[in-house]
Amino acid sequence: MFEFLQRLAGFAVPIFVISTMLNVGLTQKLPDIVGYWKEWPFVLKMLLANFVLAPLVMILAVNLFTFPPALEAGLLIFALCAGAPFLIKLTQTSEHDLALGAATMLLLMVGTVIYAPLVLPLVLEGISVNAWAVARSLFLQLLLPIAVGMLLAQFLTGFAKTIQPWAAKIGNYALYVVLGATLIGYLPNMLDIVGTGAILLGVVFVLAAFGIGYVLGKGEDHTEDVGALGTAQRNTAAGLIIATQNFSDPNVLVILTLSNALGIVMLLFLARRLSRDNEGQTEQA
C-alpha cells in the first residue's frame, strides 16, 4: 500500500502544479498585476525578503544544527522556492485585492525559476543539480500554464469561463491527493524524521519568514499583510518539481511536504486573524 501511495503522489504532483497555474492565468488580468509591479519599493523589498533574508535564515539554521543530508536538502529547497499559488487563497482569506496577491506570486515565481537552479547547487555541498533541467521544468509547469490561461481568458472568454472552475477543482483535489498520499505513503519515513528537529525548524522558518515579509512590507496595511503571507508561504509546487526530479531519497519530499502542510494550516489561521484586524480598522474608520 505504501508503494502505491508513493507512486500516486508522484503522479499527482504535475497535475496539481499545472492545473493550479492554469487557474491563476484564467482568473487574473495582466494589467491589474502590472499595476502593482510599478510599486518599485514594494517589489524590491519582496525580492530582498524572499531571495536573501528568508533563505539566509534557513542556511544559517542548517549550518548551526546537524540534519541528515536528505532533510537538509528538503529544508533548503523549501526555503529557496518562493511564489506559491496558495498565496491567492491566503490573499482572499485576509480580504485583500487578489491582483496584489497574484502580482506578488508571479514576481516571486519568476524569481524562483531563475534563482533556485543557480543557488541550490551552491548551498547543497556535494550535490550536483542540473540548473537548466530545473529551470526548464519550472518554466514549463509553472509559467507556461499561466500564460496559456491568460491568453484563453483574453481571446476565448467563453471557453475560459467554462474550464476555469474545473481547473480550480482539479488543482484543489490534486493537492489533497499529494498531501494525503505523501503523508500516508511515506509514514515510515515520517516517523524516522520525528525527533530530528527538522519539522520544528520548518515551522519556525515559516513564522520567521512571515515576520520578515511583514516588516519589509510595512507602510500600508495591504502590503504588510500580503508581504508577510507571500514570504511565509513557500512555493511547494516548485519545490516538489525539484525534489522529485533531482533527489532519490524520499525524505527530501517528505520534509518538504510536511513543512508546507503545517505552514498552510498556520498561515490560514494568520490570514483569518488579519481579516478580523482589517474589519476592525474599517469599523473604527
What does this structure look like?
- By secondary structure, the protein is an all-alpha fold.
- 85% of the residues lie in helices and 0% in strands.
- The longest helix is centred in the last third of the chain and has 35 residues.
- The protein starts with a helix and ends with a helix.
Offer a few descriptive terms.
13 helices; 285 residues; disordered C terminus; single chain; mainly alpha
Oligomer designation: single chain
Q: Helix share of residues?
A: over 70%
Radius of gyration: 18 Å
User: How many distinct helices?
Assistant: 13
* Separation, N- and C-terminal Cα atoms: 57 Å
- Mean pLDDT across the residues is 85
Number of strand elements = 0
Uncertain residue ranges: 280-285
Beta-strand proportion: under 5%
Shape: globular
Most strands sheet: none
Helix and strand content put the structural class at mainly alpha
Listing every helix as H and every strand as E from the N terminus to the C terminus, the arrangement reads HHHHHHHHHHHHH
Outline the secondary-structure elements.
Elements: H1 2-27, H2 30-37, H3 40-64, H4 69-80, H5 87-93, H6 98-123, H7 131-155, H8 157-185, H9 187-193, H10 198-216, H11 221-232, H12 236-246, H13 250-284
In short:
By secondary structure, the protein is mostly helical. The chain has helices spanning 2-27, 30-37, 40-64, 69-80, 87-93, 98-123, 131-155, 157-185, 187-193, 198-216, 221-232, 236-246, 250-284.
